[in-house]
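User: Please predict the structure of the protein below. I'd like the answer in structure-token form so I can feed it into my own downstream comparison script.

Assistant: Understood. Taking the following sequence of 268 residues as input:
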Amino acid sequence: MNGKSDKQYYGGCDVGSTTGKAVILNGAGIVASAVVPSEIDPAQTAEIVLREACRQIEGLRDIRDLSCLIGTGYGRNEVPFAHENISEISCHAMGVHFCDPSIRTIIDIGGQDVKGIALDEGGGVLEFAMNDKCAAGTGRFLEMMSRIFRMELDQFSELSLKAERVIPVTSQCSVFAETEVISLLSKRKPAADIAAGIQAAVAKRSFSLLKKIGIRPRVTITGGCAKNKGLVTALAGFLRQEIRPLPVDPQLMGALGAAVTARLRAGK
């Protein structure tokens, strides 16, 4: 309970490039969460997702009734009524540590970027690294690939698990990779084997990023791409260790970390 009332609520809002996420805690734990597609206006995204989360709690009438609200993500400065904003790197670290204090390495694969984060025993950030400004290796890249296969993203993530072998996708640019994949499909190469090559290419980029910060067991993935079973399997192969699953939706980690921080701030 941490000495905090179940009637007080603490919010975290993560405004990302593709989705907005909100988590609300009370003294006992998570009481509400929501994920919505991002609008053009980050402030609008934040308001929509926060109101959706607030509606799940009887007696919580408005965003302004939260005891403390913290914004994070690229649109963190646009979260209405936020008391503070904090970088998504710190919030992902806090969210993961809240879920599993044994984790020491995070790979956060978002819609437009990838981050590697090393944690200390208290959940603080020891070191981090980000990918260059390129769509390859991100959620956007995987969405683009799934459209080539005429599949929903969840279907595409399962496809690679049926592969008999991995057909490498060697292009480092997302545009050239698209051309390469279309060429492989036109040659009637097995779709599952090509999909496995795509997942391996993304996993390899993530693995290279993690090596920059040092890979400390245990490792987990955050962001929407953590739900991609093919990618998780491919990355575990590069790491030669299990990717630690989280007990909370990994897409919510940034918002959860912001809410945990809000609860700590309110207690001071």
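That's the full token string. The chain has two domains: 10-92+251-267, 104-245.
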